[in-house]
Each structure stands twice: as structure tokens, then as C-alpha cells.
Amino acid sequence: MHTLQRLRCLSLLQNYKSSFSTNHIIQIHSQIISNGLTQSPSIVAQLVERYCASSAPHANNYARLIVSQFYSHDHKSNPYLLNVLIRCAPPTDSILLFAHWVSKATLNFDDFTYIFVLGACARRVKTLWEGLQIHCRVIKHGVLSNVMLQTTLIHFYVNHNVFAFAEKVFDEMRVRTSATWNSLIAGYCSQIQHARDGLLLFINMLRGDYGVKPNDTTIVCVLSAVSRLGSLETGVSIHGYIIKTTPNIENDVYIGTSLVDMYAKCGCLDTALTLFHKMCYKNVLTYTAMVSGLAIHGKGKQALKLFTNMTESGILPNSVTFTSLLFACAQSGLLNEGLSLFQIMKEKFHILPLPHHYGCIVDLLGRIGHLGEAYEFIMSEKVEDDVVLWRSLMHSCRVHNDIVMGEKVAMIVMNLENYEKSEDFVALSNICASVGRWEDVEVVREMMNEKGMDTNLAISTVFA
Q: Where are the PPR repeats (predicted)?
């Protein structure tokens, strides 16, 4: 009977769907308790996973309580369940949980414990100190030789921009997997100041001295670096390598999307379009990359047409897609289309506007001189606390020589700042200078002197 009940509970947990409410998990949990299965590691582990996957406020508390009760019995030599909780819980909870059990010193950790908690540190910003302490503990307990653990350390350090430590871990590794190479390459390629380092590491990987070949993830990373650098020659060389090593490249949606993005950002829009149309499979990322490329090149109407094709194909746009579309409208001066897209995004696709969406609309209205409408848009959308939007409008006032609106917006910007910035005074000075109000320019300069700001700035070309 006990075995049957165990199998039944396992079946309930395995068939649990994310659409179910937390009450369903609690009901299954009750079945586990009533059948005396709270000390079965496999059942309790799945129960913990289900609680961690729930969005209910107290679900993670239930998961932690289950783990504590499990280890209140004699399971001190097996960290399996703790590892499950650290892996599944939100990053902050995972780190706190690890710290709690470290302080108890009653549980023996294994390699996976460190892998999962370092993974949590990699996903959580401002956890460099915690990660460094865990790294020290790893060295102390002599488990640093684990390749997965070393790879996770690299991932952690690059996510915190400590490339020197990431490189040290990488250089000291005797065995490196493709995931190891990709962790460091991806870290380099994600930042323009390190993008060339990523390409150099990719070249070292290609030499074949390490027995590891690039995979799709590697290629996507280095193509993103090329896109950031705008290095067309390098991109063409990588494309040639892909053609030689990847059969039926048009079937690979991720590499295809990366190539489309790279060529568009390197100025070869026609090549990007050709590759786009040759692709057998396209997803939202593919369409977004192509829309973005068209936007960069001022092809607003083509971008809108592509968006229509996308929705007719049954592919739903995401937030980034609309950012690219709104940017395309701003670049091409498509006012009605841009405003319509903004409403469609909210009402039809139920996507909440983010700061960059608002920024595109303010930029669109400002470019064509609808400064009053831009002002009303910011106020009506209740984003008047976003200083970036006001600065964008202030720039448009400078371009269109609207001194009245410019002064009004400048005062808003200065009142919003926690501390006053010289750039805002410079912008106001430029607006006054653009309409020949030189006395006001001097007043602004005197205000800057009183506040101890540098007035020896090229204020006439800040917005050029």
C-alpha cells in the first residue's frame, strides 16, 4: 500500500501544471503528509520544485519549511534536497538559504551546492562579496577542480564585470568544455569595451589546440560582438566559417537571426534582407532584428509592412519589437502610425509601456515640432518623474527654437534632479542662444558660477 501511495503522489507531482493554483500544491502536500512520505527525497524534492515555481507570496516559505523539517531528521550527509531548493528558489532566497546552512555547520555540502549558489550569485546583482566568500570556501574545501563549478565561477565573475578573476579561473583550468569557453566569450561580447577580447578568444578556440569547437551559442555571441563593433570584415569572415561548418544554415533560426542583426547593424541592409527571406524558420527575435535594421536605416514604412507580415504569420510581437517599431516611426516621422502602434501595443497585445517606449513617442513628437503634444503626452501618461523624457523634449525645444517651452521644461528638469547637473544649465543656455537672448545666456552662466559649475563648456555644440 505504501508503494502505491508513493507512486500516486509522484504521479500527482509530475502531472502538476503551472496553471494550477497554489491550493493544488497544498492538497498534494497534504496527501504526502497523510501517507507518511515526508522523508522520501524524490517526492519531497519535486514538492519543493513545485512550491518554488509558484508565484504565490508564501510558496517559498513552504519550500524552506519542508527542507528544514527534512533535515531535522537524520539526513545530514545528503545535501540533495537543499540543492534542489537553492537551484529553484529566487536568487536572493538561495543565497540567504546557503548562508543559513553554512552557519549551522550541520550539513555536508557537495559540488552541486556550490554550483547552484554561485549560479544564484551570477543572476543577482550586487552579490560580488558573497560570491567571493563562496569562492574562498570552495578553495578551502578542495572542490575547485570540478569543471562545472569553475565554469559557473567564470559566469559569476563576468556578470559582475570582474574579468581579471574570470580570466584567472579560465587560465588555471586543466579541462575546458564548450560551456566554459562560451561563458567567457559571452561575457566579453556583451560589452563593447571587451568585444574585441571576445573575438580574440574565439580565434584561440578555432585553432583547435584545446579539443573544443565553437557551437551555436559561441557563434551567436561573437556575431553580437561584431554587431556592437560594426566590424563588417570580421562579420563576413565569421559568416564564411558558418557556411563551411554548418549545413543548412537557413534552418538555424538563432544563427540566422544573429546574421540578420549583424549585417543590418554593419550597414548591409540588402544582405540582411536577403538572409531574412531565405530563412526557413523565423521567430519573434528574427522579425525584431529585421525591424530594428530597417529602423536604423530610416525605412519606417518597410518596418511597418514587415510588422504586418509578422502578425499575419501568427507570431506575436514583444516589448522589444515595439521599441524597434516606434523608433522606426520616430526616424521616419510617421506620427499617426507611431501613436497608433503605441495604443495597439497596450490595448491589443497587452504590453505595458516601458521607459524606452515613452521615449520613442516623445522623440517622435519632438522631431516633427509637436512640442506641446509631447509635453501633454508625458503628463497624461503619468511619467513626469522621468528626467530622460524631459531632457529629450528640451533637446527638441532647442532644435525648433521654442524658448517658452524650453524654459518651462528646463525648470522641470532642474527640479527633478536630486543634484543639479551642469548639462541641464548648458541646455537652457543653448536654447536662449538659439533665439539670440544673450542676456539670458549670461544669467545662466552666472547661475552656474554661483553653483561652482564649469562654465568653460562648448555649450553651442552640445546638441549638434
A: 283-317, 318-348
Distance CA 249, CA 299 (A): 27
pLDDT tens, residue by residue, 322-354? 999 999 999 999 999 999 999 999 999 999 999
Band of the pLDDT at 458, cuts 50, 70, 90? very low
- CA separation, residue 268 to residues 53, 70, 109, 227, 412 (Å): 44, 60, 53, 11, 42
pLDDT at 253 over 50: yes
Q: Where are the alpha helices (DSSP H) in 212-281?
A: 216-229, 232-245, 253-265, 269-278
pLDDT (mean) for 150-162 = 96
Distance of alpha carbon 26 from its chain centroid, rounded? 34
pTM across the whole model: 0.80
Q: Would you say how long the chain is, in residues?
A: 464
Name every residue whose Cβ is closer than 8 Å to that of residue 205 and which is 6 or more positions away in sequence: 181, 185, 212, 213, 214, 218
The CA-to-CA distance between both ends of the chain, in Å, stands at 81
